[in-house]
Amino acid sequence: MGLIAAVLGFGITASAHDFWLQPKSFAVDTATDFAVDVMIGHPEDQMPWSLAPERLIGLRTFGPGPIQDQVQFYEPSDGHLTINVQEPGLFWLAIETQDSVSRLESDRFNDYIDKEGLTAVQLHRIEARTTDDAGIERYSRRSKALIAAGQWRERPHDHITDPLGLTLEIIPKINPMTLDPGAAMPLEVRYRGKPLAGAKIKTIRLDETDVREPVMTDQNGLAVVEKPIEGQWMYHVIWGTPLPHSYDQDYDTIFSSMTFSAE
């Protein structure tokens, strides 16, 4: 695993590995520890992310009450996150990671930004006439998972549609837990606090191999997907922007996801 982590730490974006939080169960008891895996990869090729303490910026739960810092429960030797919520309710578990650096040769970088819909990066390379140059990017990750603790319906849950303030974030405009299967589920993408147009949202089932057609956000940062009938799901987005004042890196890229169980 150490070798895999070392290889993935440099050039991971060659195949744009998705990043997400996957609890053993999205429905948990209160005042009881539960495990959450941090994963990277694709539906057909998933692996645990290397959980080194220095790679974490933040690990928090956002529920009906005060924000809770969950780093206190994390033991690096466990291989997963240990989370604890003390009261019933719906909670977002959110993670933020440190920056890493990736360098890809021109063909691989151009293919990657085209596949992932990184239009700001693509346009910058065309305007700067650097499409034949390697791409060097600083990248980091954000993810959140929707956790239902105990009798959550007895507690307020309006906060589930509020932004958490992540640098890049997918925000459901309607609480997914209150929607019927098959209902329209609007999602908003925000980048640095503002709605992001032209972002590609991928929809991937985690407990089976099921990948749906990506959707693009409109001028208001909004896209609509259908709430799944069953299963565990991830919504994933990537965005990058130029770094004009950096002497050794070209772009800043962020991976962000939202996971929940439709059941």
Structural summary, described in words:
The protein is built from three helices and 18 strands. It is mainly beta and 263 residues long. The chain has one domain. Strands 2, 5, 6, 8, 9, 10, 14, 15, 17 and 18 form a ten-stranded mixed sheet that branches. Strands 1, 3, 4 and 7 form a four-stranded antiparallel sheet that branches. Strand 17 and strand 18 form a beta hairpin. The chain starts with a helix and ends with a strand. The N terminus is likely disordered. This is DUF4198 domain-containing protein.
Strand element count: 18
Major sheet = 10 strands, mixed
Total domain modules: 1
Distance between the termini: 33 Å
What is the element string, with H for helices and E for strands?
A: HEEEEEEEEEHHEEEEEEEEE
Number of helices: 3
- Work out the helicity level: 10-25%
Backbone structural class: mainly beta
Mean pLDDT: 91
Gyration radius (Cα, Å) is: 18 Å
Strand residue content: 35-45%
Low-confidence stretches: 1-15
Instruction: Sum up the overall morphology in one term.
Output: globular
Organism: Algimonas porphyrae
InterPro entries: DUF4198 (IPR019613)
Protein name: DUF4198 domain-containing protein
Please outline the helices and strands.
Blueprint: H1 2-9, E1 18-23, E2 27-28, E3 34-42, E4 45-48, E5 56-62, E6 68-69, E7 81-83, E8 89-97, E9 100-104, H2 106-116, H3 119-128, E10 135-149, E11 168-172, E12 184-191, E13 194-195, E14 200-205, E15 210-216, E16 222-226, E17 232-242, E18 251-261
InterPro entries: DUF4198 (IPR019613)
Protein name: DUF4198 domain-containing protein
